Amino acid sequence: MAQSSSSVSDAPPRGPIYEWLNDRLGLDWFLAFARKKTVPDHAHTFWYYWGGISLFFFVVQLVSGILLLMYYRPGEQAYDSVREITYAIDFGWLIRSAHSWSANLMVLAVFIHMFSVFFMKAYRKPREFGWWSGLVLLGLTMVFGFSGYLLPMDDLAYFATQVGLNIPKSLPGMGPIIEQLVQGGPDVSSVTIQRFFALHVVVLPLVFLGVLAFHLWLVFKHGSALPPSEEVKPEPQRRSIPFFPNFMLKDLAMWLFALNLLTLLAFLYPWPLGPQADPLAAAPEGIHPEWYFMSQFQALKVIGRYVPGMAGELLGIGLFSMGGVLWGLIPFFDTRKAGAARARAITWFGLAVVLGLAALTVMGYWEVWSVAE
Amino acid sequence: MPEQESKGDPAPATEMSEAVSRRAFAARVGLGAVGACYAAAFGYPVYRYLAAPARDAAELAAITEVTIPRENIPPAGSVLMFKFGAKPAMLIHHADGGKVCFSAVCTHLGCTVQYQAAEDHIHCACHGGVYDSRTGKNVSGPPPKPLPRFDVIEETPDGPVVVKRV
Lengths: 373, 166
Ligand code: FES
Hints:
The structure holds two protein chains of two kinds. Chain A is an all-alpha fold. Chain A has helices spanning 2-6, 16-25, 27-36, 49-69, 78-88, 92-119, 128-150, 155-169, 174-183, 190-222, 228-231, 243-268, 291-306, 309-333, 340-372, and strands at 38-41, 239-242. In chain A, strands 1-2 form a two-stranded antiparallel sheet. Mean pLDDT of chain A is 91; it is low at 1-9. Chain B is of the alpha+beta class. Chain B has two helices and ten strands. Chain B has helices at residues 2-6, 15-61, and strands spanning 65-68, 78-84, 87-93, 99-103, 114-116, 121-124, 129-132, 138-140, 149-154, 161-165. The A-B interface holds A 1-2, 5-6, 11, 13, 15, 67, 70, 88-92, 94-95 and B 1-3, 28, 31-32, 35, 45-46, 48-53, 55. Bound molecules: FE2/S2 (inorganic) cluster.
């Protein structure tokens, strides 16, 4: 630590270790490159940190996930092994709690990152692929969450997964596909856990890391986008700071803050483990998905009240899929050429989406909690 | 760090720069200390988490006796393999009726040994070590020490057999 911070200073003579490495790895080149890179500095700079924070939580997920793998046993013994981790293994509760909390914080950070990119209009040329790869990462993050939620196989996990998988099953032709390929049977069972486990710890991380590398490469290539309010300023009035070390130190400070917050939450609010899933027991009252699926869940519930049955489900899924596709196509509507009126309309649209999702989520929790009482 | 020391006394450094370098040094020490605290605060739980099963096994290994129900005692001329705490052990019921009990962990490199009734000796397949089946003494091959022995206590001819660490 001290060694690297000493190389931050502008003094050219560095230690013999640095020179030894530099002769072999060309560190000077990297340093010069990193120093040349700048990050815009303005009133909205705060929002630039959220991608880094998401990345940080992802790293926490990797580390804590690997630790959980030391004791977790998928399949029949899933619940017992999680109970062991939670109650028998030293600090197992803390590591599991950190994994669950960090998962939720990661989803939150990714959402904030996405909406800040949206409102800064950072999806415009040449950053369209950044937007799309980011949306893919968001989707993968949510599948991570969904698959990980089942793994402890307590009653909430069991029924939430059962419900979650039944939604796409209502689409024509999807029922058999989900049963045969995802669930491995007519119901969620230990076979399903085994599959979700493979997905959660092998398939998703591999895909995620690939897309993430692409995403980060694009960020490096194009740098941080200027919000429109800055873009209109003439060049000399724009301020920027070097990526290395200035922005990076700030990034690190943010990570430290995130780490402290995570530790505090994991420590003070240990993640609970419900009773073991029992397919014969009635679903617990007020069952609901994780908060990041709440808006979709609630939308389906509301639509179902007006359009009952399969048609309602179809309508709900259709609306959400359409919304997702539209969201991905935003870079084509809102180009710089399209003009200020269009840009403003898109901003209002984004606000409506945020408010809509928030309202559905609040409403969902309201209903769930009033039922539970 | 060394650059700072070399900058030290003899050169006519101004008081200003000395104060600055001292402060930089203090900041570096402070950062290092905070870093070490973080490393310890996160390293300790992870260490304990990973070490938990080994600790449980060590607790298990601390037991001093095992009671074997009579019906599990093998017929004369054969052996019973069982776990004494966390490690394998063997109770040999000799053809003449005598019972002896040893740790079944080879004193060479830790393989589990076997009783060979035909030769009436204890054999280790890993490197061909041989032990005496009555005393546990290492008689040939690489094992450096005899097998640790357990006492066999039979209070009644029909009751359970207790084996005890000596
Ligand atoms: S381990 Fe038994 S002889 Fe080497």
